[in-house]
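Example record used in the benchmark description.
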Amino acid sequence: MRMLGRLIITTAAISITAYLVPGFIIDNLTAAVIAAIVIGVINLFIKPIIQIITLPITFLTLGLFSLVLNVLLLMLAANITPGFAIQNFTTAIIGGLVLAIITSFLNLLARN
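Model output (structure tokens):
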């Protein structure tokens, strides 16, 4: 049940982000659900491995490389998912930040 709640929250956050950020494109609700699943799988399996590999770079940049890593993984999810597109790297940075803020806010609302 908790996993379904996270899926709904992430899908809503992706849809809201697509509405707010130009260049962050979701074709329909099905694409948003698939994008939420793909982002979840990437964050669960791929992200921890890449974080360990890039730990020295993250340390040298005082953590700023983790932002770049998140953007690259978001762009990977957009390339994998049909109906989900990000126009450029700048859009991915803005979209990633907006997505993180909206997801945090929706998770906070869901707890209460």
